[in-house]
Amino acid sequence: MADERSYTLLITKGNDPDDQYGFYKERIDSQNDFSYVEYNTEDNDLTDEVFKEVDVIVMLFGLYHNNKELFEELFEKSGEFDVPVLLVRFFGMEFILKELEERSDAVVGWNPHCIVDAIETLVKGRDWVKPCDSGEKL
Q1: In terms of DSSP H, where are the helices of the chain?
Q2: Distance (Å, whole) CA 119 – CA 35
Q3: How far apart (Å, rounded) are the C-alpha atoms in residues 138 and 119?
Q4: Residue 90's pLDDT is what?
Q5: CA 82, CA 69: separation in Å to the nearest integer?
Q6: What are phi and psi of 66, to 5 degrees?
Q7: Which of 41, 46, 52, 124 has its Cα between 20 and 30 A from that of 76?
Q8: Closest CA to 59 of 115, 130, 137, 126
């Protein structure tokens, strides 16, 4: 069960021909017991103040190939401001580039419960150890 706090998320948004952002928003918004404030990479200036407020950077892998420079900037800011990165797989695919997986603090698919669980786990400072919806065994 989700806790009562509201999370501040920075979500990738940009060149997105498959509407991964819209699909992600539908999924996360379907969780009635999860509250968040959103910054996104298209509608907000990515100032240092934003990164100081953000709890988790949510990167949508489906946007990676059209937004590589943005992903690199977010990984750099993640390290600079000690903000964990949650990488969400491309919808319908299990494949993730190993280099991105290694730089992320957690990787999940599109199960909204897994997304919420990963965010809560990362914010609590715990390592993400659950494969959740990947079909892998612990």
Answers
A1: 20-29, 48-53, 68-81, 98-103, 112-123
A2: 11
A3: 19
A4: 78
A5: 19
A6: -95, 0
A7: 124
A8: 115
Per-residue pLDDT tens listing for the chain (138 residues): 445 789 999 999 988 888 889 989 998 999 988 999 999 999 999 999 999 999 999 999 989 999 999 999 999 999 999 999 999 987 666 667 889 989 999 999 888 888 999 999 999 887 766 656 544 433
Ramachandran quadrant class, 135 (left: phi over 0; alpha: psi -120 to 50; beta: rest): left
Q: What are the tokens at 137? A: 């065994």
pLDDT at 129: 67
Residues 103, 89: contact at Cβ < 8 Å? no
In total, the chain counts a number of residues equal to 138
Model confidence pTM above 0.85: yes
The position carrying tokens 């997986």 is 101
Rounded Cα distance between 52 and 95, Å, is 31
For residue 69 the two structure tokens come to 């420079």
Q: What per-residue string of b and e applies to 18-49 under the rule 16 or more CB within 10 Å gives b?
A: eebbebbeebbeeeeebebebbbbeeeebeee
